[in-house]
Structure formats: structure tokens, C-alpha cells
Specification:
Blueprint: H1 2-14, H2 17-33, H3 47-58, H4 62-73, H5 76-80, H6 84-92, H7 104-120, H8 124-153, H9 159-162, H10 179-191, H11 196-212, H12 219-227, E1 235-242, E2 247-259, E3 262-274, E4 286-290, H13 291-328, H14 330-342, E5 357-364, E6 370-375, E7 378-384, E8 390-397, E9 404-409
Parallel strand pairs: 1-8
Antiparallel strand pairs: 1-5, 2-3, 4-5, 6-7, 8-9
Helix pairs in contact: 1-14, 3-4, 3-7, 4-7, 6-13, 7-8, 8-10, 10-11, 10-12, 11-12, 13-14
């Protein structure tokens, strides 16, 4: 009875690892939305560069942002892989004791922000290299994603093959790729085309983007220009990020159970996605990337593996308590129970500052140097841009402000 009471009293003290990380990430989101970027970190060698890179980008510190992203970009593929031995190890120890394992979508968002940074600093050649690298990533990630599905379903999903198609099959990628990245790549080639080949590349990217975001009808205007091999004139493309992608919270059970071998502690924990609220939309903006869907598509697959790992962990730790009692007596069993509680946690780390949605607008300036953005009829931003030339505009919108980054596309 003393052991049961001791275990019950210890439960709240020992089962707090995931909750601590959740609180840290909540603070990261809160600071990010209020423009406080000094403490965008959680002391993780893989996650911190992602948080820092996004924070620096929001402050127009493009070169510093690029360096932060390169910190993880060079080892992203290795960071995403998990060996069988690694999975076994995570079943027996705290799954958050190792560095954050980035989602596939994280890799593509790194490219997305790096392309924006390159354009913001007028590093046109670098942007082209980054776009080409992002396509190589898409090919690799589509194959990796297909493997992930096959490992559970034992079935070839055909995603890698579909990546090379140019028809409605691109719709299957809207929830695992980044249509906003693909559209940005198309806009780049459309503006900086120097040959028929460049216009064809622009058409290819724009067609893919249209296939993944069929409701964004304005993309077809860009496709028409690419097909006519005609550069755009007097166009502003506005990308609007809003809200935050889903957060993960821990769902766990820690409770003494009676077995034929005596009292044991059952500890099991899994992550659960919580969808964050969205700010009001900007009038006239069309959805181009549903980041919630991108996140959930991956998380559902990971959650299956996590549940299997959690079950294996519970069985292993229950057996450990029996061995400990047989060899060390009652207090050995108590020590094993404490270990079981302390090392049971769900993976709740995410790139917390990614947006919930990405919308886009295509505005023909028509000799007007002012773009007025409204939400529900309320003016939220007046963007002054030159009357001539083409521009890219980036906005991170939280429902109360819309401060644009304006990039002139110098062809």
C-alpha cells in the first residue's frame, strides 16, 4: 500500500516533460505573433535553427535568416531518418531526449523562406539555385513519403511517379508538398525568363501550382503569359500567411494496475494535434496552401508509428518492473515504476511558427501605386509601390496588422 501511495504522489512530479515543452512552444507562438523575436528557441539543435530562421526572416534580416536555415538544411535528410534501432531506443527512453525530427514539410518551408530571402536581397542567381534544390527535395520527399505509407500498407502509392505528371494528379500533392513554394518558383521563372526554356519552366511550375490549388484561378493568367512566352508587366503578387499550424499536446495515462505479480505502473503517452484558430481572411485572397492539411497528413502517419512504439514501451516497462522486483525486491519495483513514468512522453515538438494558411492575390496595378487590403471591409493595410514594374509582397497576418515586405522583381 505504501508503494501505491508513493507512486500516486509521484505521478504529477514525474510526468511533466512534454507539458514543459508545450508551454515553451506556446510562449514561442505568443512572442512571434506580438513581434517579440528575442527568445525563439527551445534548446534543440534541430528545431532552434528553424524557429530562429523564421524569426530573423520576419525582421528582414535575410542573410542571418539564411545562415540559420543552412544550419539545419545541410543535415536535414539525416535528421529526418529514423533507424529501426533508433525506434527501439525511443520505445525504452524519453522520445524527446534526442533532437527534433523535422517533418517533410519543414524541409520545403526552409526552401520557401530561403527563396524569399534571396529575392529580398536581389540574389537572383541564388534564388534560382534554391528553386532547383527545392524541386530535388520534392522528388526525394515524395519518395520518402511513399515509403512511409508502404511501410504500413505494403502498397505502392505511386506518389513519386505522379510527381512527374502534369495534370490533375498534382492534386494529390496539395497536402504533402507546398503549393505556395511551387507558385513562387513559377513567378520567379516568369519574371526572369531569358529563353524559351525558362518560359517553359515557368509554365511547368505554374501548372503544378494550379493543379495543387485549383481554386486560385488567377494562376491561369500567369500560365497564359508563360505559354505566350511573354513577361508580365505591372503585376504585384501578394502572399499572405495567417495563423499558426496545429500544435501537439500530450495525451497520457499513468496509473497503478494490479497484476498477478503485484502492483505495476502503466505509463503510455501519445501526441494529439490541436488546430489553432484562424484570423479573419483578407478580402479577395485565395487559398493557395492549407498548412493544417499538410501537417495533419504527415502527423497521421507518424501517429500510427507513435502508437505502436508507445504500446511496445508500455509492455517493456511493465516487464522491467517485474524483473526489478524479482531481483531487488519491492523498492526495486518502485524504482522501475519511477523510471517508467519519467521516461514516458509523447513527441510534442513542432516548427511552431509555421502558418496555418497561405493565401495569394494577383493584382494588376494599372498605373496605380497603392494597393489597399481589407478584411471584412475594414482597411488593414495600404501598400505603396511604384506604378511600374513587377513586385512580390509578403505578409504575415495575425488579424490586427499586415506589415508587408515589398520586393521589386528586376528583370
Amino acid at each position: 500500500m505504501k508503494r501505491i501511495l508513493s507512486i500516486i504522489l509521484l505521478l504529477p512530479l514525474l510526468a511533466g516533460c512534454a507539458q514543459s515543452v508545450e508551454k515553451q512552444l506556446d510562449n514561442v507562438r505568443k512572442d512571434f505573433s506580438s513581434g517579440e523575436f528575442k527568445n525563439q528557441k527551445v534548446s534543440d539543435r534541430n528545431l532552434d535553427p528553424l524557429l530562429a530562421g523564421n524569426a530573423l526572416f520576419q525582421q528582414d534580416k535575410f542573410a542571418e535568416s539564411d545562415r540559420a536555415f543552412e544550419n539545419i538544411n545541410k543535415r536535414m535528410a539525416d535528421a529526418q531518418r529514423t533507424s529501426i534501432a533508433g525506434e527501439v531506443g525511443r520505445a525504452l527512453t524519453n522520445p524527446m531526449s534526442g533532437p527534433y525530427r523535422p517533418y517533410f514539410m519543414d524541409d520545403l518551408f526552409v526552401s520557401y523562406y530561403q527563396i524569399w530571402s534571396a529575392l529580398g536581397e536581389n540574389r537572383i542567381a541564388d534564388a534560382r539555385v534554391l528553386i532547383n534544390q527545392s524541386y530535388a527535395k520534392q522528388q526525394r520527399l515524395s519518395g520518402e513519403y511513399a515509403k512511409m505509407i508502404r511501410s504500413r500498407e505494403r502498397d505502392d502509392s505511386g506518389l513519386a511517379a505522379s510527381l512527374r505528371a502534369e495534370n490533375s494528379e498534382w492534386k494529390v500533392f496539395s497536402d504533402i508538398m507546398n503549393p505556395a513554394l511551387t507558385y513562387l518558383a513559377g513567378i520567379y521563372f516568369l519574371n526572369f525568363a531569358r529563353s524559351a526554356s525558362d518560359f517553359e519552366t515557368a509554365r511547368t511550375y505554374l501548372t503544378r501550382a494550379s493543379g495543387m490549388a485549383p481554386n486560385a484561378g488567377f494562376i491561369r493568367d500567369d500560365i497564359a503569359l508563360a505559354r505566350a512566352r511573354k513577361g508580365p508587366e505591372g503585376i504585384a503578387w501578394i502572399f499572405i500567411e495567417s495563423g499558426f499550424a496545429p500544435r501537439l499536446t500530450e495525451k497520457r495515462i499513468d496509473w497503478p494496475v494490479f497484476t498477478q505479480n503485484g502492483v505495476r505502473v502503466m505509463s503510455i503517452a501519445v501526441s494529439d494535434a490541436v488546430v489553432n484558430p484562424a484570423p479573419a481572411r483578407i478580402d479577395g485572397a485565395q487559398l493557395i496552401a492549407d498548412v493544417d492539411a499538410m501537417f495533419m497528413t504527415e502527423h497521421v502517419e507518424y501517429k500510427i508509428n507513435e502508437a505502436l512504439r508507445a504500446l511496445a514501451s508500455t509492455i517493456s516497462k511493465l516487464a522491467l518492473q517485474t524483473v526489478a522486483e524479482n531481483q531487488l525486491g519491492p523498492w526495486g519495483s518502485l524504482g522501475a515504476a519511477i523510471y517508467s513514468i519519467a521516461t514516458t512522453a509523447a513527441e510534442v515538438r513542432t516548427w511552431a511558427t509555421l502558418p496555418k494558411r497561405i493565401y495569394a492575390m494577383r493584382v494588376e496595378k494599372k498605373n496605380e501605386g497603392l494597393i489597399v487590403l481589407k478584411s471584412g471591409g475594414r482597411v488593414i493595410s495600404e501598400i505603396k509601390i511604384p506604378k511600374v514594374g513587377n513586385h512580390l509582397i509578403y505578409i504575415r497576418y495575425f488579424g490586427d496588422k499586415a506589415e508587408p515586405k515589398i520586393i521589386e522583381l528586376k528583370g
